[in-house]
C-alpha cells in the first residue's frame, strides 16, 4: 500500500487519466525531460526508456500541436457532414456526440501544449503564474471529463451496432433516434458526475521559485490527503485502471462479436448470390465501425495495461516505465481523437459523397444527395 501511495504522489488525471501531469507541474520545464533522471541499472530498463522519453519529448509539443489542429478541423467537418439531412441516423447521432467530445479535448490541449512545450521564451514566473495554474486546473478537469465521454460513447457505438446486427427484428425499437439522443445525453451527464472525485482532488497552491518569488501550481487538495490519502488511491484505480481497462475489455468482446457476425454474413452471401444492397451497406457500416473500435483499442489499451501494472508492481515500474511513456500515450490518445475523419472518408461512400457535395461542389454531380433509408428498413445506418 505504501508503494501505491508513492505512485499517487506523481499520478494525475490528464488525457490518459494517469499521465505525468502533476509531475510536470511540480517541475520546471526544460528541453531534456521532466522530473526523472537517467540512472544506471534502473529497474525495468528505466535508463533506456528515459533516453527514449527525452528524445521524444523534444518533438512532442510540435507533433501534438499539429495533431490538435488537424483533429479540431477534422471533427468540425465530421459534425457538419454527419448532421446533414441525408446523413441523419441514430448511429450517426452518436458519432456526432463522439466528434464533439474529441474536439473539446483537443481545444483544451492546444494552448496547454503550446505553453508548456513550444514556448521556450517564458520566464519561470510566466510559466507558473496564477492565471496559468487556474487554466491548468481547468484543463485537467475538462480533458478528463471529455475524454471519458469519448471513451464511453465509443462503447455505446459498439453496443448499438452489435444490437443492430444481432437482433435485426427488434432493432427498429432498440436503435431508434430517441434512444440514441437519450444515450448521448446520459453519457455526457453521467461522465460529468462520475468525475466529481477529480474536481475535489486537485487545487491551485503556492510555492517558492528559485528566486524566492511566489508562484502557483496544481497540487493535491487537502481533502485528497485525508484518511491516508484515500481519495488519491480511489482516483488512481478509477481513472487510471477502471476507465481504461473496462471499456477496452468490453470493446474487445463486442468487436469479436461483430467480426463473427460479418463472417457468418459472408458465408450466407456465398450461398445466396442475390443478397440485396442493403445487406452489403450494413456490412460496410459494421466494418467502418470496427476500424474505429480497433483504433481505440490500439491507442487506449496500452495506457490501461501500464496503469494496472503500476498499481500491481509499485513505484519502480511507475517511475521507470509508465512515466517514460506518459507523453507517448497522450499523443496516441490525441491521434485517436483526430483520425476518425480519415476512417469515415476511406471506408464510407456516403460520407465521401456528402463531404464532396458540401465542400467540393465543382467535383461532384449537380444533384441532391439521396436520403438514407428509413429506420424501419435500414436500422441504425451509419455513413454507408
From TrEMBL:
Name of this protein: Sex peptide receptor
Alphabetized InterPro entries for the sequence: 7TM_GPCR_serpentine_rcpt_Srw, GPCR_Dmsr-1, GPCR_Rhodpsn, GPCR_Rhodpsn_7TM
Transmembrane segments: 59-81, 93-112, 132-162, 183-202, 236-263, 288-309, 329-347
GO MF annotation, one: G protein-coupled peptide receptor activity
Keyword list, A-Z: Membrane, Receptor, Transmembrane, Transmembrane helix
CC per GO annotation: plasma membrane
Domain G-protein coupled receptors family 1 profile residues, every copy: 74-344
Keyword Lipoprotein: no
tRNA-binding keyword on record: no
Localization per record: Membrane
Chief location of this protein within or outside the cell: membrane
Entries under Pfam families matching the protein: 7TM_GPCR_Srw (PF10324)
Family membership noted in the UniProt record: Belongs to the G-protein coupled receptor 1 family.
SUPFAM superfamilies: Family A G protein-coupled receptor-like
Amino acid at each position: 500500500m505504501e508503494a501505491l501511495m508513492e505512485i499517487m504522489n506523481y499520478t494525475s488525471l490528464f488525457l490518459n487519466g494517469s499521465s505525468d501531469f502533476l509531475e510536470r507541474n511540480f517541475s520546471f520545464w526544460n528541453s531534456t525531460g521532466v522530473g526523472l533522471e537517467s540512472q544506471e541499472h534502473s529497474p525495468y530498463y528505466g535508463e533506456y526508456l528515459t533516453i527514449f522519453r527525452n528524445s521524444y519529448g523534444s518533438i512532442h509539443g510540435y507533433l501534438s500541436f499539429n495533431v490538435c489542429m488537424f483533429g479540431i478541423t477534422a471533427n468540425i467537418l465530421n459534425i457538419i457532414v454527419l448532421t446533414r439531412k441525408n446523413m441523419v441516423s441514430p448511429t450517426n447521432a452518436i458519432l456526432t456526440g463522439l466528434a464533439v467530445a474529441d474536439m473539446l479535448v483537443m481545444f483544451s490541449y492546444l494552448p496547454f501544449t503550446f505553453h508548456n512545450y513550444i514556448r521556450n521564451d517564458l520566464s519561470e514566473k510566466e510559466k507558473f503564474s496564477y492565471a496559468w495554474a487556474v487554466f491548468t486546473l481547468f484543463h485537467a478537469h475538462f480533458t478528463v471529463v471529455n475524454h471519458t465521454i469519448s471513451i464511453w460513447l465509443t462503447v455505446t457505438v459498439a453496443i448499438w451496432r452489435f444490437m443492430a446486427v444481432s437482433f435485426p427484428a427488434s432493432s427498429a425499437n432498440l436503435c431508434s433516434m430517441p434512444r440514441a439522443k437519450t444515450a448521448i445525453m446520459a453519457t455526457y451527464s453521467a461522465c460529468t458526475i462520475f468525475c466529481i472525485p477529480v474536481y475535489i482532488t486537485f487545487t491551485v497552491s503556492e510555492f517558492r521559485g528559485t528566486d524566492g518569488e511566489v508562484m502557483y501550481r496544481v497540487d493535491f487538495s487537502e481533502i485528497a490527503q485525508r484518511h491516508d490519502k484515500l481519495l488519491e488511491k480511489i482516483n488512481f484505480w478509477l481513472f487510471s485502471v477502471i476507465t481504461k481497462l473496462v471499456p477496452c475489455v468490453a470493446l474487445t468482446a463486442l468487436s469479436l462479436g461483430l467480426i463473427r457476425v460479418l463472417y457468418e454474413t459472408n458465408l450466407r452471401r456465398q450461398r445466396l448470390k442475390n443478397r440485396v444492397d442493403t445487406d452489403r451497406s450494413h456490412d460496410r457500416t459494421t466494418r467502418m465501425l470496427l476500424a474505429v473500435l480497433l483504433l481505440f483499442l490500439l491507442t487506449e489499451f496500452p495506457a490501461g495495461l501500464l496503469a494496472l501494472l503500476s498499481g500491481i508492481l509499485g513505484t519502480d515500474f511507475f517511475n521507470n516505465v509508465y512515466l517514460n511513456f506518459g507523453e507517448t500515450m497522450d499523443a496516441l490518445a490525441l491521434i485517436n481523437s483526430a483520425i476518425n475523419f480519415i476512417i469515415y472518408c476511406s471506408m464510407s461512400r456516403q460520407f465521401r459523397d456528402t463531404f464532396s457535395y458540401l465542400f467540393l461542389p465543382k467535383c461532384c454531380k449537380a444533384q441532391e444527395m439521396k436520403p438514407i433509408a428509413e429506420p424501419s428498413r435500414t436500422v441504425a445506418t451509419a455513413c454507408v
